[in-house]
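Archive transcription. Copying these from loose printouts into the bound notebook so they stop getting lost. Printout 1 of 2:
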Amino acid sequence: MAKKKSEKNEEIKETAPTQEQTPETENIQEEKDQEQPKDETAEKIKTLEEEISSQKEKFLRLAAEYDNYRKRTASEKLSIYDDATARAVTELLPIADSVEMALANLKDCDPEILKGIELISNQLAKSFEKLKIEHYGKTGDIFDPNLHNAISKIDDENLGKNTLAQVFQTGYKIGDKIIRHAMVQVANCD
């Protein structure tokens, strides 16, 4: 009978589910196994997302730095060109002034001489235009201390306040760069 009981216990052990083999314990074990990889995967994903955002930020900064460099070098090239042009034109301005004075004072001379001086004046004007040189400072303009060099002032009822009464020397500029300030007389200034 003892033999039958031990055989019966063995059968019961074989047929009875153990604690590890119950469906509930299997689900718990599977959840534990799945939680570990999920946590590791979530950490890896988070790490990779941080790395991607870091690389993206570096890329955007590099792109912005390159864009600033490109703009700065383009501006410097233009500035160098303007400076070189201004220095060369500075040497030609006395000639332009002499031609202007000749035109103003030779009204009663031989028409052929006047025509020749007008041709020279027109050639200078076209050359300055090609170089993007602008002249400024005409009688009646408003006085601007950034553009004009006031060497005298007068009171004149016929002219408005801070108006150019007379221009002694024409001013020249290239873009925003002043090559030579206009020398002027200002009417009715403060």
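Printout 2 of 2:
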Amino acid sequence: MLDWAYSQAVGFLGAFFALMGNMGVELFDLPWVQALVAFFNQLGWALFGVSLVVACFEFGIEYSSGRGNLRHTAINCLKGFLAVSLFSTVPVRLYALSVSLQASFTASITGLGTSIGAVGQNIITKLTTPGGLIASGVDFIFGGPAFNPIMMLFCVILMAYAVLKVFFANLKRGGILLIQIAVGALYMFSVPRGYTDGFTQWCKQIVGLCLTAFLQATILTAGLMVFSDHALLGLGLMLSAGEVPRIAGAFGLDTSTKASLTSAVHTAQMAVSTTKVIASIIK
């Protein structure tokens, strides 16, 4: 019964994290957020249109010197069209999918919603196995391996630290996604011209954000479930959940916005300067 109650409590925690993730998804249903996303979507289309003109000018200049490649220019323009069509919708859908998968995985791990009848059947099965009754009596009398109060206090502190760290990370993830979408509009000037490094890094940040949303809560829930049988192993899993963003960043899936903002500002400055040069040439 205690194992069932503990599993239901951990399942509730996993469902709570999924609810927080859904709050980040529901953020994009608010009218003012939709208006903000629509504004940056239009800005992306405007930068894409300017970039097409610049790409045509650059192709003409290179073609006059015998270095123009129409196929590469057309492919870059197609990449830019796909990017500007999807940059404001795909991140939200991908984030919603990661939250939905996290909720399903945590519910399966914890057995959330298991009926009391199934719990009783499991208890009877355990007690009828050889040594099951004796082991249950020993655990009941002596409190199991984690009976030491100092050890229990140490475990509770580490558990609270791991849970709070994941909690605050989930709390700000919807806002970070909104910032990423706003920043992604500034890359629409460079993609049709063949400069895709910044946009590729932006895509990696979106993937890293969604991967972190899925892995952090799932690993934390798995650690809480393991803790009841193997305390130190469960604590290790719970603490490793907070290291998911750092490990993802080591493989190029950085979830921070610092590098993205710097690159986007540089792209915007380049777009303004290039537009001024083209305007002066036309005049």
